[in-house]
Amino acid sequence: EHPRMKWEILDAFADAAESAGIAKTSDFNTGDNSGVGYFQVNQKGGRRWSTARGFLKPALQRPNLTLETRAMVQNIVMHNNRAIGVSWIRNGRNGVELNVTPARASVILCAGAVQTPKILELAGIGQGERIRSLGLQVVHDLPGVGENLQDHLQLRAIYKVTGVPTLNELYAQVWRRPLMAADYAFRRRGPMTMAPSHMGAFAKSNERHATPNIQFHIQPLSLPKFGDPLHDFPAMTISACNLRPDSRGSVHAKTADPDHAPAIDPNYLSAESDFITAVESIHLIRRIVAEPALQKYSPEE
Questions:
Q1: SS3 per-residue string spanning the chain
Q2: What is the rounded average pLDDT of the residues 162-172?
Q3: Do strands 97-102 and 82-90 pair parallel, antiparallel, or not at all (unpaired)?
Q4: Positive or negative CA dihedral for 294, 295, 296, 297?
Q5: Residue 97: pLDDT band with limits 50, 70, 90
Q6: The pLDDT value given to residue 81
Q7: CA dist., res. 224 & res. 206, Å (int)
Q8: For residues 203 and 171, what is the distance between their CA atoms, to the nearest angstrom?
Q9: Looking at residue 103, what is its pLDDT?
Q10: Residue 96's pLDDT band (cuts 50, 70, 90)
Q11: What is the mean pLDDT of residues 59-85?
Q12: What angle do CA 196, 197, 200 make, to 5 degrees?
C-alpha cells in the first residue's frame, strides 16, 4: 500500500532532490527505480502485512505442513554424508525438549545469511580446519561456507532543522502519545503506521554508473543509534546505502554451542571502490540539502 501519512520535511527533501537532478517518482517498481518519492509499504489496512501473515498462515491449512514455534535447530542429522533430518529444541535449555525430525526426501535449510552457515558448520559442513577448531568432525570440506558475505553499509547523515515538525519533538510531547495510539487504533493512520523509512530515493553517486548504485532512506526523525531514544531537537535522517558493494566479509560459528551467536565480520570499506562510493554519497546528500527547498529549514549537519 501507499503510506497513510506525509511529512512536510520529507516533501521538502523530494523537492530538493528534484532540484539536484533526481526526478520524482510515485512507484519504484516500474522497472527503472531511479527517482525520489514515498516508499510503498508492506501493509494491509494500515497494519503490517508480513510474509507470515500474507503467505505462511494461509498455507498452514495444508494437511502436509506442520509449523513448530519457539524452536531452534541444533544440528543437521547426517548419515553417509547425506542430510537425513534436523535436531531441534523447544523453549531453550531450561526444560529442554530435544526433537529429531527425519526427512522423507530432503532437508531445505533457509535460516538466512547469518544462521545458515553456522548451522552448516555445526553439522560438519564447511572449512575443514575451522570445523576441527570447534572440536567437531568434518563431514564435508566445503571452503565457501560462511564466506562472501555482502552487506550494504548505510551512512546516516542527521540534520537538525527548524520551523518544521518532525517525529522527534512530537514524540517528546508525552501527551501526544495516546493520541497517536488512538489514531492508529481507530483510523489506522498516523506515525504508528510508518515504515522504518518513509521516503526513499535511488540515484547514481557518480555518472560512471549506468544505473543507480545508491539508495537513500529518509526519515522525519533522528537518534544516536538504533535502540536509543530520539534526539530532543527536531531533525531528519538521510541514510545512504551502497547497493552494489565490492567488499566481502564472513559469518562463522564461534563455538560448537548452537546457542552462541556466530561471528559476523562485514569487512566494510575494505574495497577502495566502496570507500569512494561512501564519500560520493555524502557529497550527494550535502548537495541535496544545499538546495533552497531544504535550506529554508536551516539544516545543520
A1: CCCCCCCHHHHHHHHHHHHCCCCECCCCCCCCCCEEEECCCCEECCEECCHHHHHHHHHCCCCCCCCCCCEEEEEEEEECCEEEEEEEEECCCCCCEEEEEECCCCCCCCCHHHHHHHHHHHCCEECHHHHHHCCCCCCEECCCCCEEECCCCEEEEEEECCCCCCHHHHHHCCCHHHHHHHHHHHHCCCHHHCCCCCEEEEECCCCCCCCCCEEEEEECCCCCCCCCCCCCCCEEEEEEEECCCCCCEEEECCCCCCCCCCEEECCCCCCHHHHHHHHHHHHHHHHHHCCHHHHCCCCEC
A2: 90
A3: antiparallel
A4: positive
A5: low
A6: 84
A7: 29
A8: 31
A9: 86
A10: low
A11: 89
A12: 160
C-alpha cell at 25: 517518482
Dihedral sign of CA atoms 142, 144, 147, 149 in order? negative
Reported as a single tens digit per residue, the pLDDT across 18-30 is 999 999 999 999 8
- Give 174-191 pLDDT, tens digit per residue: 888 888 888 888 888 888
**pTM of whole model > 0.70?**
yes
